[in-house]
Amino acid sequence: MPELNRDRLRTLLAGAEPPCVSVYLPTSRSYPDSQQDSKRFRNLVLRAEETLKSQHPTRDARAVLEPFNRLADDPQFWRPSAGGLAILAAPGRFETIRLPREVPELAVVADSFHVKPLIRHVQSADRFQLLALTQTTANMFEGNRYGLEPLELPADFPENLEKAVGEEVKTNDGRTGHSLGNMGQLGGKENHGFRGMVSYGRASKKDEVDSDTGKFFQMVDRAVQERFSNLSGLPLILACLPQHATDFRKVCQNRFLLPETVLGNPRDKSPDQLRQEAWQILEPHYLARLEKLKEDYRTAFSRGLGSDDVATVAKAAAASRVGTLLVDADKLIPGKFERDSGEIWRAVQGEAADDMLDDIAELVLARDGVVVVVPSDRMPSQTGVTAMYRF
After folding, report:
1. Distance (Å, whole) CA 372 – CA 327
2. Fewest Cβ atoms nearer than 10 Å: which of 21, 202, 212, 375?
3. 332 and 382 in one domain?
């Protein structure tokens, strides 16, 4: 299942031929609870089918829903997996996305995909990347307070010392070594997605080791910037031994690297341990960023360059005026949003409709604005949305 990142989100935001069906549900961590996931999924698909038949009576609902039904019958797909699941379908398209955090059960049929939970995953202020670094290996992870997953490394990424500086390298005990690539076990411990080295041979001078390590760290720093940080814009947390942190920071030019370090050999920690220690570092930065956004909004509002009125914000989004949009993670406002004019129509009780906040957020992103999905208790307004204008 492809990873959800900014590029994939941008593809989803580019639109699809309606009707667009979006189904979200939380998934269970363990058996037998996970057996109920497919049953709840079927109920959501039935709900979507009813809406399809009422809103699009001339379309063949079976063609859009058939991939959902096949997925419901696939026992391999419904393995235990904590977090959430997003499944999006439209004529000729079918997307499945696993998320590290729970999402509420939801079935939406609209002219575009419902993507606010996906925006939250990609744009949320609590996301970070982590560089797990040793003297001879480098691995990248991405996550938030709920989960941490290894990232696929590009083919040219200097994931180990041999690949970075040459086939024969010097290790920290003065021996030559060669990379092994992926290993299932290392030193009797689980290898949690790390790549490593095995060493053997003759003695070497310490300054040769230091020279190789310095080159390796420089190449890792450049690759992380170009392949991950500059693309994601996420904070970067370093996980390594204290002496390696000092050496890496001497050569590091990554503006996204936070000053704090997850100390210790990352190969000795599980992804969940890394997540917990990384979140302890990130949480103060996360809270400070939310407070700064709230302060910036209050300043903009006082100058006539901000609003929390949904109708006003919708018109500003249509005019490409919104530079930064804060959206309540937990609030839905059923209705319709006209992208060209910015007009909104709130749905009447019981009427099937998409979330207007979701549609406004989609348009702001499409117009190169910034969208941050914020927990309800951290929003500067109770309306579900606040906007800061470019002009």
Report:
1. 6
2. 202
3. yes
CA–CA distance, 105 with 84 (Å, rounded to integer): 9
Interval 218-229 mean pLDDT: 96
Helix (H) or strand (E) holding 219: helix 206-224
Residues 233 and 376 grouped into a single domain:
no
Assess if residue 295 is contained within a domain. Answer: no
- Angle separating helix axes 116-123 and 6-13, nearest 10 degrees: 150
Do 156 and 225 have their domain in common?
A: yes
pLDDT digits 0-9 by tens, 360-390: 999 998 898 999 989 899 999 999 999 999 9
Give 26-52 pLDDT, tens digit per residue: 998 777 777 789 999 999 999 999 999
pTM, whole model, 2 decimals? Answer: 0.71
User: Of 125, 157, 185, which residue sits at a domain end?
Assistant: 125
| CB contact set of 82 (below 8 Å; sequence gap of 6+) | 27, 28, 29, 147
Distance of CA 365 to the CA centre of its chain: 15
Dist. CA 67–CA 58, nearest whole Å: 20
Counting Cβ atoms within 10 Å, is residue 368 exposed (0-12), middle (13-18) or buried (19+)? exposed
- Cα radius of gyration rounded to whole Å, the chain: 24
